[in-house]
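User: Some background: our group keeps a shared notebook of sequences we're curious about, and every so often someone picks one and asks for a predicted structure to add to the entry. Today it's my turn. The entry only has the sequence so far, pasted here. Could you supply the structure so I can complete it?
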Amino acid sequence: MPDANALQEYARKRDFSGTPEPRGEAAAPADEYIFVVQKHDASHLHYDFRLELDGVLKSWAVPKGPCLDPSVKRLAIEVEDHPLDYARFEGHIPEGHYGAGDVIVWDEGRWQPLGDPHAGLKSGHLKFRLQGRKLSGSWNLVRTRMPGRQPQWFIIKGRDGEARDFPRFDILAKEPLSVLSGQPLPSEMTAPASNRGLAGKPAKKPAATSAKPAAPRKSARQRLPERFAPQLATLVDAPPAGDWRYEIKIDGYRILARLDHGNVRLLTRNGHDWSAKLPELCKALAGLEVDSAWLDGEILVVDEEGRPDFQRLQNAFDAGLSEAIRYTLFDLLWLDGMDYRDKPLEERRAALQDLLRESSSDRLRYSEDFTDDPRSILDSACRLGLEGLIGKRAGSRYVERRSGDWIKLKCKRRQEFVIVGYSEPKGSRTHFGALLLGLHDKDGELRYAGKVGTGFSATSLKAIHQQLQPLVRQRCPLKTLPKGQDARGVTWLRPQLLGEVAFAEITREGLVRQAVFHGLRSDKPAREIVREEPRSTHKRSPGAAAGRGNVVAGIAITHPDRVVDPGSALHKIDVARYYEQAAERILPWLGDRPVSLVRAPDGVGGEQFFQRHASRTELPGVEQLEPRLDPGHAPLLRIANTRGLVGAAQMGVLELHTWNASVDDLEKPDRFILDLDPDPALPWKRMIEATRLTLTLLDELGLSAFLKTSGGKGMHILVPLRRDYGWDEVKDFAHAISRHMAKLMPDRFSAISGPKNRIGKIFIDYLRNTRGASTVCVWSVRARDGLPVSVPISRDELADLKGANAWNIQNVAQRLGGPDPWSAWPSARQQRLGRKMWQQLEG
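Assistant: Of course. Here's the predicted structure to add to the notebook entry:
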């Protein structure tokens, strides 16, 4: 329940006898943290961003609204807490009242704090994930030091697969309507497009609750668009309430088909044209009785029992045997000059079914849907060895992004756990929030295994709570306490009662993910409950998490047990899992720069090749940049999400090398790099000495610098810059440093490349600052014995460093979770190369 004083300011500002806003006497029905974004046409159009915490909605006014571009910071002004039932408020606040104007619910959903949310708010940096209809993925609220009567924050999108470039994609312009009523603000109903949000308000108010789809974009025939992006589903852990249609989740490749008077193009989710790879499907689609269309579906290959088999699909491509590939279609975006995206789901699918009914080809199939109990359907799908279900909200329209109107339910593992405690309820929930779980290890010790907070009804919450009360105890029954927030506000129990829980996986830390409660068990003694391991006929990779399978970040890893490094016996699946684990740390340094790849399909001891540009072989999740950025070549590459990292590993990539400039301005570097490259015969202490001497020079020049191990023999020194200089000027400055050090200490340093010029010396490599050159990215694996990792370090750590290959993918986990040695980088990004610096180097 909220603090009694939490809503005093909210109530003080409002006269509830004249405003329809809720008094805050009833809580919104939510078992998990909710969030809402309300579009508010008051004295100025703005968006109110609200997060549920401690029984209230923590609130910020965002004048320009949220943006999906991580490089765009939107001001968010902290305002008074609002009651939970405000989350569903839509309507007109009369003139003369606080906040007078019209309000619609622009987005709603669930949010998940990343870490302790109270600590985040107190420190001024709250990290969280959203799962809404329009906003999803990782986000940040960062408090500024700007003066004002109310605290000023920035709301910033995280770098992940949900990010989009602005202004090329403007979520506010693309999705202006209420998610409750499907209607715009009243001022947007009548105002011309150029003045929307500024016009006077008509007398008519928007509907508050009736949900109906928006009208089709145009009724007249239109020109067939060149491109569409697919609608993507949001992963959920339980079927939601409401009217949904469910289809079997297909284990294949997503394909959009464009049909134009017999000419067929088959486009992947990333926009690559696969028409030449799938001639039989093109022929089948060309035979449909249609002039123009856009169709959405999944290509697949089935096994002997008719089940989709992703491995067989990949094998068909590898062998060039596309005859076995089928196309299961589930949506229609366009048909004979009519845009169907704004039509209800049922109407789109009925038109698709009619279209396919006339086809005689056995290569085209319609994806049937079900309206039965989704838990029963999912249970049947899982027993048949299928991947899960896709749910689609009845009446919803088609949107070209990830949406809460499409959800995915995956088949999960299931076993008993010992119930060791329960957490306090939040919001409107009663009795308890989540059950804390335990499993016995091989020594018989009871270890924390995570918690489960979904799968309960109001009745089961009460019944289970009653059974837990006789088991309450003061001391924690676990060998070690859970970390962080999981140990706060817990009522501990004697470890006697068992719960059956379904889950997606158990992490390397031994915690369940996406857990759903299925019931209490009393047919086994608690002391026998251990982690159930699936039997496997394959040799398990050292360090691999048990039971995780061969799918990492949604990418199926083929040949997972292929040995990548014979010396350490590390496998391909280990590399994929490392990049998934390191994604949060590596993507800020990788996602906005062109990347070059070192591919080693036969492992460390085999042939390796360097790839800077796109090739005919698609890399799952790896983006191709616009050709104009590197004229005369195939497109440059970029990896901006976890899927891209793991997709690269699936294709044999070990190393990731990045440019010294960002993709938004490749002609102006934002850093330079000094690569200290030693004679291999030199002792390590000489490298430590050389690094300190180079840092001393940079200090004298007044330049802040940052260190990382190369993962090989040397050290890398990175210097952030303001983007005021071209490539030649930056390279010349780095060259001047190299020459200066070699001139001062010719017995220690060389400014000339080549092995013969660094005998007994260390070459300060400045050549990595040329346009198109790249350096191994921080946190990247190296294609060397032991699979070392390039790791950032602080100056204080230099003295104790044992080598540039001190960390590898087996021992770097703790480092990944530790403090960031480069946390001061943002404050150094405005450094300039002044005339005095040049004079010092040339003197």
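Suggested note for the entry: Residues 248 and 389 are 5 Å apart (CA to CA). Confidence is low (pLDDT under 50) at residues 26-31, 190-220, 534-548.
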